[in-house]
């Protein structure tokens, strides 16, 4: 059995869900994972996490940002600081957040820490909009 656990510090989003495949956004790009994958630990990037349930074949997507994933032949544990499900995304709010972050990045002189935080906010908003389309 190949199972997914998707967790944040505040909640357990998915626990022991049997899946057939998962696409994970990492800092070095997306990785596709299937049952029997070699063990791996990776830093998460900001983007859309996609997984297909084994039983129904339904595809689910959510926005994640920052954290780690642990991959073993038996499954995937995704430990993330941020997760947003499709039903939690507001197109108007995501578009406004994207515009505000991009404007701040383009016009304001930011410290390295402020730049990274603003860039992450822009990436979350873009991923939220991608999730809706």
Give the count of structural domains: 2
- Unreliable segments of 5+ consecutive residues: none
Described by the principal axes of the CA atoms, the overall outline is globular
Under CATH, the topology of the largest domain is which?
A: ATP Synthase, domain 1
The number of strands is 7
**Secondary structure tally, helices:** 2
What layout of secondary structure does this protein have?
Elements: E1 3-7, E2 12-26, E3 29-34, E4 40-43, E5 47-53, E6 59-72, E7 75-85, H1 91-107, H2 112-132
Parallel strand pairs: 1-7
Antiparallel strand pairs: 1-2, 2-3, 2-5, 4-6, 5-6, 6-7
Helix pairs in contact: 1-2
How would you sum up this structure, described in words?
By secondary structure, this protein is of the alpha+beta class. It folds into two domains: 3-86, ATP Synthase, domain 1, CATH 2.60.15.10; 89-132. It is built from two helices and seven strands, in the order βββββββαα. It has helices spanning 91-107, 112-132; strands at residues 3-7, 12-26, 29-34, 40-43, 47-53, 59-72, 75-85. It has a five-stranded mixed β-barrel with strand order 1-2-5-6-7. A hairpin with a 2-residue loop joins strand 2 (12-26) and strand 3 (29-34). The two termini are 31 Å apart. The mean pLDDT is 93.
Brief synopsis:
The protein has 133 residues and is of the alpha+beta class. It has two domains: 3-86, F0F1 ATP synthase delta/epsilon subunit, N-terminal (ATP Synthase, domain 1, Sandwich), CATH 2.60.15; 89-132. The chain has helices at 91-107, 112-132, and strands at residues 3-7, 12-26, 29-34, 40-43, 47-53, 59-72, 75-85.
